[in-house]
Design a protein that fits this description.
The structure holds two protein chains of two kinds. Chain A is α+β, with helices and mostly antiparallel strands. Chain A folds into two domains: 68 residues, no CATH class; 76 residues, Glutaredoxin (3-Layer(aba) Sandwich). Helix content of chain A is 40%, strand content 10%. The longest helix of chain A is centred in the middle third of the chain and has 19 residues. The N terminus of chain A is likely disordered. Chain B has four domains: 93 residues, Glutaredoxin; 208 residues, NADH-ubiquinone oxidoreductase 51kDa subunit (Rossmann fold), CATH 3.40.50.11540; 90 residues, Ubiquitin-like (UB roll) (Roll); 90 residues, de novo design (two linked rop proteins) (Up-down Bundle). In chain B, the strands form three sheets. Chain B has a five-stranded mixed sheet. In chain B, strand 7 and strand 8 form a beta hairpin. Chain B starts with 5 loop residues before the first strand and ends in a 17-residue tail after the last helix. Classes of the chains: A alpha+beta, B alpha/beta. The interface between A and B is large, with 46 and 67 residues.
Chain lengths: 183, 546
């Protein structure tokens, strides 16, 4: 057979779900310093630390689940950059979150390839099951529902991602079953 | 489309009709029935078969054999030999001169069963991507060795230019020309960048290359750097591609250890340092100047051009930016020579193209075939027909910014020039095949929703234009559109195309333009009759409800 079907196992999305919401100032500072230390050697020129800004922010985002305001203050101090610029960069990229998210982040691909193979129905079922709209977090802090643009596994659309798990060929009937796996 | 063993196409252009194509068509149907093959063979007439030197023509798939000129009296032999006995009837074949369009890939297939022609994916799925020795055992780093020890940088560029390779990221710019532009810059510091921010919806070819054959990209980048005189490079991989990043990181470490990266590569005195930069989720960063901004740690907002990155790129230095698939072609070209490469594809679009096949078909996935094959071939051969025997309505090619192609254009060869002539964009190679349940307004709305959320927001035409276009399409899909909206959409489409700063805004309206050009009646039904013919739109009567 000449057509290769994409395998889905083994691909981990970069979203690591946040363990909890509130972080103390010390914890934030420790996360920032660790992230900067991890990237310090990578900068080709110490004056060009800016080149490492996005990796540093991603690192903090992974550790804390999102970028709290204190993190921007601390990164700004360390890299001698205005907080406004840091926020400007962070708010631009979809994988960096400036708002706290739920314990489990559910992402649904809303791009055309998933849409035409039944994505619309799955999206309706998902909103119904979680009682959430796009971008919303449930009051108990368990779920955050997000839409995402194409993540490149279109051969098995519609695609649904919960935390680090990818589900392909999802049908509306499977939605509750998939969500039930997460506590 | 039900699954058939063979597909017979009869040319139906005015010239063919004048020479008896209708009669040939009728006779083929008769003979097929006479041999009892009617359940296994489908016969269709097509407007344009791509060449006119031997009409009327008859093409038989899956072998892709072209017969012509066929007279009604030839039909019995043709059907008996090819369709009944299963062997090609050489006496009736069309002359093989002027290899253009679909005919071009016959030479690669030699009249046998359909096969892929793998160049950039030759090792994907064959070797262990985490083992450099497996790569070397499959002719890995041979091209690099040849270039560094036997060729001058200018020779490398010349070979690439002669191969006719054009950029596979979507625009189709000649790769050799781009390399020359960087090479002639007199600057002590230059960069090469691999654009692996593959975020065009429906495209995942670059991911498979990076995951399946990461060393080929490393080898290609050292080659490109040697050719243009750069000593440092970046692979910008989108943040979502975690496995690709991990494999690439491992491959870079192995290559450094073996001396294919670093100082004095192959004892030639040439040095090259390669970094990986992870994206953080932004479609617009696939635009080369936005990508450069992002590597510099800023918001990924495209720069005004000119100056082009070939002159003022990363950190203001001359920079060569190439797509993953383009780069993956470099080692095979250097290894086998430009003439070898030119035997694949069409004269103006050489080589192969990786297509991702998606949508309402029986087999989704990815295939690498010579440039110039047609959508019909892709659907009937590689995608195994439409799902559940449905009818092919439209295809959306090249990701969100690509064209919407009606079924009538499915026989246009997919190469840069034929598509440009038909006003269609080949784009990144995504082929989203849709059946009659797909509503063109609904599809355009989804695409425009994508652009309005991915627009970087810096320039007004794109920020406002995509938002406004989405509002209009949404109103139509809810049954509250107005006829004046059609003019507004056309005006927005022109504005987006002409006044946007970068490719995102300039191409965002392509689906709208195609929708109005090919499916105007369906769009008007939403407005005048308040009916969605495909039954996909909500038509709730309330705008803004999703």
């Amino acid at each position: 057979m000449s057509v290769e079907t994409t395998e889905v196992e083994g691909i981990e999305p970069a979203v690591v779900h946040p363990p909890r919401h509130a972080w103390s100032e010390e914890e934030v500072r420790a996360a920032v310093q660790a992230a900067i230390a991890r990237r310090a050697g990578a900068a080709s020129d110490p004056l060009q630390m800016r080149e490492e800004l996005i990796p540093i922010l991603s690192d903090i985002n992974q550790t804390l689940g999102y970028l709290p305001p204190e993190a921007f203050v601390e990164v700004g101090k360390q890299l001698r950059m205005p907080v406004s610029q840091l926020f400007s960069v962070a708010s631009f990229y979809q994988m960096l979150s400036t708002k706290p998210r739920g314990r489990h982040v559910v992402q649904f691909c809303e791009s055309a390839p998933c849409h035409v193979v039944g994505g619309r129905q799955v999206w309706a079922a998902l909103q119904e099951a979680l009682k959430l709209g796009p971008g919303e977090t449930s009051p108990d802090g368990k779920w955050t529902l997000q839409t995402t643009s194409c993540i490149g596994i279109c051969a098995v659309g519609p695609v649904l991602i919960v935390d680090a798990d990818i589900y392909g060929n999802v049908t509306p009937a499977q939605v509750t079953e998939i969500l039930a796996k997460y506590r | 489309m039900k699954a058939v063993r063979s597909l017979v196409l009869v040319s139906n252009d005015p010239d063919s009709v004048a020479r008896g194509a209708q009669e040939v068509y009728r006779r083929i149907q008769e003979e097929v029935k006479a041999f009892g093959l009617q359940d296994e063979v489908a016969v269709t007439m097509v407007a344009d078969i791509g060449r006119h030197d031997a009409v009327p023509m008859v093409m038989v798939y899956p072998e892709a054999v072209v017969y012509g000129p066929i007279r009604p009296d030839d039909v019995k032999t043709l059907v008996e030999e090819h369709l009944y006995k299963g062997r090609i009837a050489p006496g009736l074949m069309a002359p093989t001169r002027e290899l253009t369009g679909r005919i071009a890939w016959l030479s690669a297939r030699k009249g046998t069963l359909p096969a892929e022609q793998r160049i950039v994916l030759e090792r994907a799925g064959v070797i262990d991507p985490e083992d450099i020795e497996d790569y070397i055992a499959h002719e890995g780093y041979v091209a690099l060795g040849k270039a560094l020890t036997e060729m001058q940088p200018a020779d490398v560029i010349e070979e690439i230019a002669r191969s006719g390779l054009r950029g596979r990221g979507g625009a189709g710019f000649p790769t050799g020309t781009k390399m020359k532009m960087v090479a002639r810059e007199q600057h002590p510091k230059k960069y090469v960048i691999c654009n692996a921010d593959e975020s065009e919806p429906g495209t995942f070819k670059d991911r498979l290359i990076l995951e399946g054959d990461p060393h080929s990209i490393i080898e290609a980048m050292v080659l490109a750097a040697y050719a243009v005189g750069a000593d440092e490079g970046f692979v910008y991989v989108r943040g979502e591609y975690v496995l690709a990043q991990a494999r690439l990181k491992k491959a870079i470490a192995q290559a450094e250890e073996m001396g294919f990266l670093g100082q004095d590569i192959f004892g030639s005195g040439f040095n090259f340092k390669l970094h990986i930069h992870s994206g953080a989720g932004a479609y617009v960063c696939g635009e080369e100047t936005a990508l450069i901004e992002s590597i510099e740690g800023k918001r990924g907002e495209p720069r005004p051009r000119p100056p082009y990155p070939t002159q003022v790129g990363l950190w203001g230095k001359p920079t060569l930016v190439n797509n993953v698939e383009t780069l993956a072609n470099l080692p095979p070209i250097i290894r086998n020579g430009a003439s070898w490469f030119k035997q694949f594809g069409t004269p103006n679009s050489t080589g192969t193209k990786v297509y991702t096949i998606l949508g309402n078909v029986n087999m989704t996935g990815l295939v690498e075939v010579p440039m110039g094959i047609t959508l019909r071939e892709v659907i009937s051969i590689y995608a195994k027909g439409m799902r559940d025997g449905r009818t092919f309505k439209l295809a959306q090619t090249g990701g969100s910014s690509g064209s919407i192609i009606p079924a009538a254009l499915q026989d246009t060869p997919m190469d840069f020039d034929s598509y440009a002539k038909a006003g269609v964009s080949l784009g990144s190679g995504a082929l989203l095949i849709c059946d009659e349940d797909t509503c063109v307004v609904d599809l355009a709305k989804v695409l425009m929703n994508f652009f309005r959320s991915e627009s970087c927001g810096r320039c007004g035409p794109c920020r406002i234009g995509t938002e406004r276009a989405h509002q209009i399409l949404d109103a139509m899909s809810q049954g509250v559109g107005k006829l004046s909206d059609l003019n507004d959409l056309e005006m927005l489409a022109n504005g987006l195309n002409q006044f946007s700063n970068c490719g995102l805004g300039q191409t965002a309206a392509v689906p709208i333009r195609d929708m109005l050009r090919h499916f105007r009646a369906e769009v008007e039904a939403h407005i005048k009759l308040k009916v969605c013919p495909a039954g996909a739109c909500a038509m709730s009567g309330i705008a803004g409800r999703h």
